[in-house]
Structure prediction request, 283 residues.
Amino acid sequence: MTTFSAKFLNFMIAFVNVILLLFNTSTVKKTAPQINVDELTLTFSDEFDGDSLDTTKWRAHDGGGVRKGGYWSLDQARVEDGNLIITTQYIEDGEKGPDWYTCGLDTAKSHLQTYGYFECRCILPKGQGLWSAFWMTNSNVWKESDDATQGAELDIMESPFWHLGGKAAWKITQNIHYSGYDLKTKYKNVGIFQLDNDPYENYNTYGLLWTPDEYIYYINGYEVARTSYGGISTQPEYMIVSCEVDGGDGSPTFGWSGNIEKNDKATFCAEYKVDYIRAYALP
Prediction:
């Protein structure tokens, strides 16, 4: 993708997101059904209790390198005080030269699963022009398809709203993609959800119950949405935890999360803190 097309795509995503913020934002209702993990079987867990990243569980997603408006580097991920911490910052002497660096990790070589419940407990990173995410996918997502039965990108949580400021920023979005990307993609915004606490200061949990019939999304254990958009994926998928910079070809641009170039390169440092990531099998 050229930088021009990346700018155009980012603008379109930002435009659509404004419409969605107006018409597809909901609150987390404490009267909604709750997930009961005691009825499920734990199949994967990383509590990040050690002093280094467990590379038997995690690898650099897509091999690292250029990712949208910056670079992914394993150097930006560390384990400290019971958390995985993914740091986003501008590095003058970065391994690919001066640019914005962050990280994406996946379980593609250690844990793939069909159906189940998947959950992340985390504090979101503060900063314009970047967003954290917890999501799932497989290689079939890149192939054009009439339905999503061979695989879908399941965005359990994305956090592009810090630039809105105040309590307006206390939102996350949940999405589904399949059939490739760019103009080929088929996409649904499952919803945008307003939290009742500051997710940039407090831990919250974001989960997905994937069954043969539907996807059920959860925030802090409460159901917020359900969908069977595109048909349910029947193939194993892996988990990804990541932070991304708006832009393309390593060049930052304005997008749905704002523009990271508005931050002070010399002092800006955003941390995505993940307390745990767990997966469960259905009964």
